[in-house]
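Sequence in, structure out.
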Amino acid sequence: MLVALIARDKPGALQTRLDNRAAHLAYIEETGVVAQAGPLLDEDGAMCGSLVILDVAGMAAARDWAAADPYARAGLFASVDLIEWKKVI
């Protein structure tokens, strides 16, 4: 199943994001379940969140992946939503 992970960073947490970016990208590579991903941007073009499309067996696997993400473990996110997603285009 495809799951959209939509995460919003805590205010003022850009340095936390930058400090953990390499580990986050390595985690994406190592786990092999990310179909698409990229940062959300604020009006000034600065990173302020994440959109990750996971291709996983179920919602429990999506929750496990999200909890183990180095960004989440570093306390970067103010909120994380996991929503089943259907690709149309």
